Amino acid sequence: MAGRLPRIGAPHLTPIPMTDWRPGLHALAVEHGLDPRRTRALLALVDDTPPPRLPERLLPAVLAVGALLVGLGVVMWIAANWADWGRVTKFGLLQALVATSLLGTWALPRLRPALGLLALLGQGALFAYFGQTYQTGADPWQLFTLWAALAVPLGLAVRHDAVWAPWTLVATLAVVLWVQAHSGHRWASDADSATPQLWGALALVGLATALSPWAQRWHGAGLWAWRAQGVWGVGVITGWALMAVFSTDWAAQFFWLGLLLLAAAAALWRQGDLVMLSSTAMALNVWALAGFGRWLFDGNGRDWLGQAFLFGLVAAGLLAGTVSLLMRRHRDGGAA
């Protein structure tokens, strides 16, 4: 059977596409009144073996989702009883959540990734409640930095993406909030934010490099933690570049952010990970089109229709070229 189901005793039947074989076979069995034995024989024509290593891949994912729901449930439980419970009760519940999660991470190796994720969530909730209860005057970036720093030993002990992947979001938020705090507490890309954004971009690149596969034997993070850090970093750098487009002195900051994305794309082209390469290529497309749009529509005539048509042509050309390059890299052995 190469793409179509052979006709079974009834020439009027429409061939069934390969993707719909099982429902189609059930329909054939009902239509022709096949008994259970013949129905099983008909269904045996379809290779219905489960994907390899399905249980050992599915169980950690289900446990991680369960840990996420438990952690969020405890946070929502406290929020729902905010006025009724005292400070000691809230602190005690959050501390018990962190302590029991860490104890379970040590004592139950099979549940270590899920309990490590639960401990990470408990740490964040505890820091958030501490900051809400005792107004220390600390900036938000300091709390996120402390959370990320204290979670590093947890990630090194668990050595699983269930901890490292959400940790990347915490670390990225710490960098973004640091840049915002050192840019006059403004979300902008201008002369005042150029230096903080440069250091922030280098920090994001450093985080992605530290979590890359070449250092896996030290930290134990897997491919998805590295990909998550790369996606957050590319998204943040692209966002800074887009904000620069709408500022007055935009050119220098916009172009060095683009050069950083281009350097990342060049490095990823050699490495061959298509997920990271595709996200960086998309960011480069957005960056290039934003700069071209700023140049095209910034006082260059009043032919808006022609300019919009030209912008659409350039966007389509960039997209087609990017897809062509990615497909070629995939054929050359890129990892999906």
From TrEMBL:
Protein name: DUF2157 domain-containing protein
Segments crossing the lipid bilayer: 58-79, 91-108, 115-134, 140-157, 164-181, 193-212, 224-244, 250-269, 274-297, 309-327
Pfam families per record: DUF2157
Coiled coil: none
Lineage: superkingdom: Bacteria
Keyword Metal-binding (UniProt): no
InterPro entries named among the record's database cross-references: DUF2157
Domain spans labelled DUF2157: 31-164
UniProt keywords, alphabetically: Membrane, Transmembrane, Transmembrane helix
